[in-house]
Specification:
By secondary structure, the protein is an alpha/beta fold. It has helices at residues 2-11, 65-72, 96-109, 122-126, 158-169, and strands at 27-28, 33-35, 41-42, 50-56, 81-88, 113-118, 134-139, 145-150. Helix content is 28%, strand content 23%. The strands form 2 sheets. It has a 6-stranded mixed sheet. Strands 1-3 form a two-stranded antiparallel ribbon.
């Protein structure tokens, strides 16, 4: 009995990707989701720039709005930095058509951010993101996880995150 319990515990996924880990490959296309413009999303395309990645339940979309505004106010150099918002559409009661319409409006309003739909919680499975929550990850240009947080990002951590982004962008970072 104890052996089965231990094996069961070992098979549970760890919570979220971990700092220092290379983000596992994730592809979303067709019935799995993809970019708002209908093209596929491949996490390999995240390499080459420092990336801030939001993986969010639509019901938690406003949880880190203060942080998002503070991040935008930094005006990081878009030639060395990108932002990606992946919406866990299976984590809500809201209909997909309504979420998709809202994402299309956001993509038009914020063209520098890549908006992606995850229709079947593939990010929860592959990246071990916390389901039904707001997840935030900073990735190096090589795809290494530099910072990870689920839930509300404390204001006391903002400067640490901005410093990580600046440092990994190189040069002046802005």
């Amino acid at each position: 009995m104890i052996r089965f319990l231990l094996v069961g515990l070992l098979m549970l996924p760890l919570f979220a990707v971990e700092k220092g880990e290379i983000l596992p490959h994730l592809q979303l296309s067709g019935k799995e989701g993809g970019r708002v413009d209908g093209t596929s999303f491949d996490s390999d395309t995240l390499k080459g720039k420092v990336t801030v990645l939001f993986y969010v339940d639509p019901d938690k979309k406003s949880l880190n709005e203060d942080f998002t505004e503070a991040l935008k106010a930094r005006h990081f150099d878009r030639s060395r930095y990108r932002s990606v918002a992946i919406v866990n559409m299976a984590a809500t009661w809201m209909p997909n058509f309504a979420i998709a319409a809202a994402l299309k409006r956001k993509q038009e309003k914020y063209p520098d951010t890549i908006y992606v739909k995850d229709l079947h919680k593939k990010g929860v499975k592959v990246w071990r993101m916390k389901d039904d929550d707001a997840n935030f990850v900073v990735l190096s240009r090589e795809g290494e996880v530099l910072y990870v947080k689920a839930g509300k990002i404390p204001e006391s951590e903002y400067e640490t995150i901005f410093s990580i982004i600046r440092t990994h962008m190189g040069a002046s970072g802005q």
